[in-house]
Amino acid sequence: MKKRIVMVIAACLIILSACGTKESVSTGNEENGNLNLVKDGSLTFAMSGLYPPLNFKKDGQLTGFDVEIGTEIAKRIGLEANPVTNPWETIIQGLKANKYDAIIGSMTATPERDEQVDFTNPYYLSGAQIFVAEGNNDILSKEDLAGKTIGVIQSSTWKDMADELSDSVKGYPSDVNALQDLALGRLDAVITDKIVGVNAKNEKGLEIKAIGDLLNEDRVSVAINDGNTELAEKINEAIQSMIDDGTYEEISMKWFNENIMDKQ
Questions:
Q1: Is 20 exposed, middle or buried (0-12, 13-18, 19+ CB in 10 A)?
Q2: CB–CB of 71/16 below 8 Å?
Q3: Which one of 25, 77, 187, 193 has the minimum C-beta count within 10 Å?
Q4: pLDDT (tens digit, 9 = 90+) per residue, 144-200?
Q5: Same structural domain, 50 and 160
Q6: What are phi and psi of 129, to 5 degrees?
Q7: Beta strands, E only, the chain
Q8: Whose CA is closest to 76, among 31, 122, 124, 25?
């Protein structure tokens, strides 16, 4: 009889232990609901760490626009921010393998990527942008580019766009080379990614400006695991509240000297 009682107690302890183990692998908490977090109480978000000024390492610490946006999102959800790096070529696979909760690393939401992950509302807008010299007041839109000399990266989608707007297109090995020639008056305009142009203007002091609307729109969003609707809702609410109270614009002005949520 005593042996049987001991066996029953042992069985109960195993069951309780199993229940305790299940609870210790928490997928959320009472305050934040079932967010399926990889680390309880923290929002772990990934980026390459190689894309200044959006995300990069300075003195061994991750910093940049993406890092500050992710940190503010975590704060507004009620979580600690835990930014991490992952090689870009495997960053979606890392998300799907639950290495982190989200990708906040300047990822454009595309139909191909949307088949693997879910995307939130965009946290900034980019795309093909026309840049001209600061003192150029003659070119105000894409319609004014007919017959003008446009600089673009060789063999790029920007070149295809430029070919449709002018019969005088000059190829360059990099965006920076084209933008430097633009500032020196050797070109009438350059078509490149909006963020690349804005960063060149700020970091290199080039006297250039963006004109007209984006020629195409890249919606840069937070990527999360497919089906995690509660986390998506929390992130969307955080992004919108940042926009509404002016925090988003403050962060954007710090890194770009303009609001990069604007289309122009």
A1: exposed
A2: no
A3: 25
A4: 999 999 999 988 889 999 999 999 999 999 999 999 999 999 999 999 999 999 999
A5: no
A6: -130, 140
A7: 42-47, 50-51, 55-58, 61-63, 80-85, 102-108, 117-126, 128-133, 149-153, 168-172, 189-193, 208-211, 218-225
A8: 31
Distance of alpha carbon 52 from alpha carbon 56, whole angstroms:
5
Strand duo 149-153 + 102-108: pairing: unpaired
Give me the torsion for CA of 240, 237, 226, 125, rounded to 10°.
10
Does residue 96 sit in the same domain as residue 197? no
C-alpha distances in angstroms, 16 versus 20, 22, 26, 171, 260?
A: 6, 10, 16, 69, 53
* Integer Cα distance of 256 and 264 in angstroms: 13
**Is there a single domain that holds both residue 119 and residue 189?**
no
What SS3 class is residue 238? helix
Q: What stretch of H or E contains 91?
A: helix 91-96
The letter for the amino acid at 156 is: S
Tally of domains within the chain: 2
Q: Which domain holds residue 246?
A: 42-126+219-256
